Amino acid sequence: MTPQARLSAAIEIIETIEAQRAPAAKALKDWGTAHRFAGSGDRAAIAGLVWDVLRRRASSAWIMNDDTARGRALGMLKRERGLAVDAIAALCDGGRYAQEPLSEAERAALATRTTDAAPPPVAGDYPDWLDPYLAQVFGEDRVAEAAGMASRAPLDLRVNTLKGKREKVLAALTHLGARETPWSPLGLRIELGADARNPGIHAEESFIKGAIEVQDEGSQLAALLAAAKSGEQVIDLCAGAGGKTLALAASMQGKGRLIATDRDKRQLAPIHERLSRGGVHNAEVRSPRGEEEPLADIKASADLVVIDAPCTGTGTWRRNPDAKWRMRPGALEIRLKDQAEVLDRAVRLVKVGGRIAYITCSVLPPENGEQVRAFLGRHAGFSIVAPDQTAAALGDKATAFAGAALRSPEGWLMTPRRTGTDGFFVSILRRER
């Protein structure tokens, strides 16, 4: 396919997403199924265009003064890809499978309009209703922080220390351009270009043998800040597919008791194969059965309960840019109730002197610091472990991390702009009595 045809295909898919309110991933998959002539390179390039339009949806429409799929796509080419007017015009030459030539109004908009006078939600590419929340946590920096959350995410990997060492795995992945992550002592990073194809990590020997897992560096750091220790009893209360469960097992050096569970047993489906591949032998997976409590036998005995809490996912907008435009205020209210419920559930599991690690992939204060303060108001026997103390788990990176991440009395907030990771909040709570 020509670059012109790829752009037209991307605009067609964006129109489908809008008309059918379809998730972008599904729309892309459906388009590929219906257009089997498109090669993997074509599909990757088209997907890159679609994701970039979704990342910059509001600002691109502002630049063009045109909130259509075409308008947003053209604005994105200037805003995100940095193309000059003539380069954009060359992609719209009116030829076969190409978009119609630029109008005079479109040329003028591309040449002159910027986001300098745009309101924060437009300049930062996020829904209007979220502006008060982002202003609360970031203040005047919210546009810059949101722009970071609209950037492309790299592919981050975690080296499984139960199966390998970072330097050896790094050497095995040099052909993919892998390099060490800046914060996590276990992380590797592969930067992906706008039109990059999937590097096929799942076919790499290191992955097949369990020496690496795909995991954002922020998620790796959250697991490290939880500071699970060898020989402890650790419960992963919202284990999902098992990413943090695997990281906790490595922190425990495979020793101790690790229990993974989740309210939604469907989310647990991949965990069994991942634990097996990763060489984890001290983990027990407990799937819920009806109304039965899978942890009924655990009473105030856990050294650590890790809560990777259900949340709005605002911290993962780099990877799910369409999610922010589909998110509604009601979703936040539901998540707040879910978080309070799982926090309260953890209370009876953790022993005196034990910890609860409360983690979200959100940047919104109601889900983070406010949720922690509400918990402390309900449970007087708990206190917050000082953030500086929790950062010590990062070893020689602790001081630099403390200078980059956003510290609050309740914990740490990582963001793409500050730490180059997804957005993660981590608070460690200790049971005093």
What can you tell me about this protein's structure?
The protein has 433 residues and is α/β, with parallel strands linked by helices. The chain contains 21 helices and 13 strands. The strands form two sheets. Strands 5, 6, 7, 8, 9, 10, 11, 12 and 13 form a nine-stranded mixed sheet that branches. Strands 2-3-1-4 form a four-stranded antiparallel sheet. The longest helix has 19 residues. The model has no long low-confidence stretch (mean pLDDT 95).
Which helices and strands occur, and which strands form pairs?
Layout: H1 3-20, H2 24-34, H3 40-55, H4 57-64, H5 69-79, H6 85-90, H7 104-112, H8 120-123, H9 131-138, H10 142-149, E1 155-159, H11 166-172, E2 179-180, E3 187-190, H12 205-208, E4 212-214, H13 217-226, E5 233-236, H14 243-251, E6 257-261, H15 271-277, E7 283-286, E8 302-308, H16 321-326, H17 329-347, E9 350-360, H18 369-378, E10 382-384, H19 387-391, H20 398-404, E11 406-407, E12 412-414, H21 416-419, E13 424-431
Helix pairs in contact: 1-2, 1-3, 3-5, 4-5, 13-14
